[in-house]
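Problem: given the chain below (448 residues), write out its structure.
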Amino acid sequence: MDNKKLTTARVLKFAIPSLLGAALFLIPMKIGGEFVLGVSLLCDVIQQWMNPIVDTLSIVFLSIAAVLPFVAKIWKPRFITGNKTMNSLFNVSPLIIVVRVIALLYVVCYLFQVGPEFVWNPKTGGEAYVIFTTILTLMVGTSFLISLLTDFGIMDYVGILVRKLMRPLFTLPGRASLDCIASWVGSSLTGALLTSNQYKDGYYTKREACVIMTCFSTAAFSFIYILARSCSLEAYFLQSVVAIYAAVIPCAILLPRVWPLSKSKDEYVEGSSGEIKEEIPAGLSKSRWALQCAAEKADTMTVKTFLVRGVQTIASVWFDVLPMVMFVATTGMIINEYTPIFKFLTAPFVPVLNWMGFAEASTAAPMLLTGFLDQFLPVAMANSITAVDTRFFIFCVAIAQIIYMSEIGVMMIRSKVDFNIGKIFVVFMERTLLSMPIIWVCTQLLIH
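Solution.
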């Protein structure tokens, strides 16, 4: 921590962007008789501007995502291998290359109505393409604006204030508060990567890293909003945030105390010096220290850094996330539409949903399991549900499940912390079963 004086200018650099971010993402305004978020108005303008060219952009972005990895593997040009961002986006594994090529073929089949009918069917490729284009257009604005919440110190400020709650509530060290908040309101993949790196650096034990990865890496506020719009629930965005966090917080409290997370080893990575000491400097109150930390975080942000991070986020979504979304969503929709697999596996959920009073229970039940493949898949499938309360319930459960193999699951296994696919699935089901009654109650209270 630096020793720079806490001036008014430094405090304002933290406070103004942070409050602006809160105003855009968290505080609704009444316009035309309806409550809307500020970010929603901006995204509407951007989406209207991009809609006429979105099909062209889809082909271009997916072509770049599919072709440049071959260039990176064969010719190894410096503009890819010598740039950290370009290298991470395009110097990828053969499996990712295959996924991107198939995603491109899926979009071509849908847009030009060629190839197998089960691919370009409106209920398969069509539903997936709606999610795909929604994310493509809306991330332009949210990629920059979400930085106001995550990069100007407000999470550091809150994190310091809640540190003493971490051990009794979540069985985690106080320093994990910043990581957990970053994972809860930022990018889920970034949160998982941050936790993996913190474990390797000796700040977390295996058990602590497992808990953070499985209990805190939910979707960013911006992504929750984008997904809500994609299944016509943007009017219920704030209600969905309330319901999602009403579920994920109890999950984060309970699941670290039950198998399999409770049985993970409380040991640090080999060579680590052990637990990190956490003390507020003498002579400073907790609130003053929180303000100092927030101001230091804001000091690291410049206009250039703000713009670069926004561009990097957009690039990551357009060239890395979107191909995976199109591949998983289309493939999942094909399996759901043309095979009985999901319906068979989720048959026990049908009477439960009927008992809860949800319409279209047999249609909704498979969506409770498809989230294990990808978070976007149940959201895409939810478009077929006409009952708003049922769609809201499925949407919130999908976000609260957190764990999905297309992205977070792969990161967990590659982290070498203490994960395998069996353990990941068990935790996924525990989260699902615990989230369902909580979100059901929230649905009854919040949706009219």
